[in-house]
Design brief:
By secondary structure, the protein is α+β, with helices and mostly antiparallel strands. The chain has ten helices and 14 strands. It has three domains: 155 residues, Beta-Lactamase; 108 residues; 155 residues, Heat Shock Protein 90, CATH 3.30.565.10. Helix content is 49%, strand content 19%. The strands form four sheets. A five-stranded antiparallel β-sheet has the order 4-3-7-6-5. Strands 9-11-12-14-13 form a five-stranded mixed β-sheet. The longest helix is centred in the first third of the chain and has 49 residues. Its EC number is 2.7.13.3.
């Protein structure tokens, strides 16, 4: 049993989606790193500007350093209203001129003599960004370097990073969705040759085994070549099968006919009673073998024809009448009442005439051999959108418990009476191939046992 796997379309789309997801993840990581760097750079400049302004505000009065904190420095830092600011101004002698005494950088103050130093640290349990700068005091009475430290919490930086990252995420998602939609359209368009190839195969008639002549992309050419190679091999096998059936029909029927003829030439008067019984058994077995062989060949013919024959509109009454004439022998008991009834209107079905006639012949023959006592009726009727061929006899019929079994091959309710078990099987297979059914009706006081072959009628607009 072939397992159903995901379609090629879904596989391609899934793989492209995974590639896009991976690319989007890389882009988002890069966007986050860029946003964080941009936020740090923006707020670091504010810290640096504020530190320089405070450093420039240092003045010497009466031989002492005084600090006049400029409001503009804190206005710059006020651009991040959710952040807290910590500062400290250190005199050359190491004393704190103003600010928080415990604010310190992890790097030594000497490293800030050549410029600004920035670092990320923690102060009072909060993550902060800290800037440290220094200035040389030129007054000889003081001498040395003054230092300024300013620390700012990172809430505004994180908010800006989140905002920039979110905008980048939205942009990347939109571009990814557009790329995925474009991929779906591109893949769907690229796979159209597969749909066209499938449609070509579906439209093909069942008996058309000629090579496919379709324009396909280079990647599909080996696939089409394989199909054509398989169809050529299948065509060769079917021709061999047809030849085998024809040869078998000829090679088997010919000796059986000759054997029957030889048996009929035996003079029964010259035989003893025991030998006459043996001859009768031989004659019966020969007749049974000929009939069984014919049914086997007809069954093979029916199977083959529905694989290769073209169905066409048929007059159900005409086919049933021909089957009736072929099935009822001219040597039938004259006391047996045989009748054929048909409606005035034409009942048209879609089927194969030879196979359908063979099915009806088998039903009638089965009734004559195993059911009919003194009456056989064959009727063609209409019921709704179906045409019916009813074969009724006055025999005992088949028990309802056996109805589901007698349509199987080599299963019969008349074992030991020369029944091959193929008659109803052939009729049932023909009915199924024509979207019909084979059914039975129980014997009643007013009606005999009836076998019904039901077939859908061809609608007028489709006729």
């Amino acid at each position: 049993m072939q397992r159903t796997k995901p379609s090629l379309f879904s596989r391609l789309v899934l793989r492209v989606a995974l590639v896009l997801a991976g690319g989007a993840a890389v882009l988002m990581t890069a966007a986050w790193l860029y946003a964080r760097a941009a936020a740090d750079e923006a707020y670091d400049r504010l810290l640096q500007g504020a530190a320089i302004q405070i450093l420039d505000s240092l003045v010497i009065e009466d031989g002492k350093i005084a600090v006049n904190l400029p409001p503009s420095a804190f206005e710059l830092l006020g651009l991040a209203p959710r952040d807290r600011i910590f500062y400290r101004v250190i005199a050359p002698d190491g004393k704190t001129l103003t600010g928080y005494d415990d604010l310190a950088a992890s790097t030594d103050k000497e490293h800030s003599l050549n410029g600004l130093l920035l670092e990320t640290s923690r102060y009072r349990g909060q993550p902060v960004r800290l800037v440290q700068t220094s200035r040389a005091i030129s007054d000889p009475s003081i001498g040395g370097w003054a230092h300024v430290l300013i620390a700012q919490t990172t809430e505004a930086r994180q908010a800006l990073t989140t905002e920039l990252t979110t905008r980048a995420l939205i942009l990347v998602m939109i571009m990814s969705l557009l790329a995925l939609a474009g991929t779906v359209l591109a893949v769907r368009y690229s796979l159209r040759p597969l749909d066209a190839l499938g449609a070509t195969l579906r439209r093909r008639d069942s008996q058309d085994l000629t090579p496919l002549a379709v324009d396909v992309p280079r990647e599909l050419a080996p696939f089409v070549d394989s199909i054509n190679h398989f169809m050529r091999r299948l065509d060769e096998r079917l021709k061999l099968l047809q030849r085998f059936i024809a040869d078998s029909a000829h090679q088997i029927r010919t000796p059986l006919t000759a054997l029957s003829a030889q048996v009929s030439l035996i003079d029964e008067e010259a035989l003893s009673e025991a030998n006459r019984r043996h001859l009768s058994r031989v004659r019966n077995r020969t007749t049974e073998l000929a009939r069984f062989t014919t049914q086997l060949l007809n069954h093979a013919m029916v199977i083959h024809r529905f694989d290769s024959a073209q169905l066409s509109p048929l007059d159900l009454t005409d086919v049933a009448r021909k089957a009736f004439r072929a099935a009822v022998p001219i040597t039938i008991d004259p006391d047996t009442v045989v009748s054929f009834e048909a409606p005035d209107e034409t009942l048209t079905i879609l089927g194969d005439g030879l196979s359908l006639r063979e099915a009806i012949v088998n039903i009638i023959d089965n009734s004559l051999r195993h059911g009919t006592l003194s009456k056989l009726e064959v009727r063609v009727t209409k019921r709704g959108d179906f045409g019916l061929v009813e074969v009724e006899d006055d025999g005992p019929g088949i028990p309802p418990a056996d109805w589901s079994h007698v349509t199987q091959r080599f299963v019969s309710s008349k074992s030991g009476e020369g029944s091959s078990g193929l008659g109803f099987a052939i009729a049932s297979e023909v009915a199924g191939a024509l979207r019909g059914a084979l059914s039975f009706r129980e014997k009643t006081p007013d009606r005999g046992f009836t076998v019904v072959l039901e077939l859908p009628l061809l609608r007028r607009e489709n006729a």
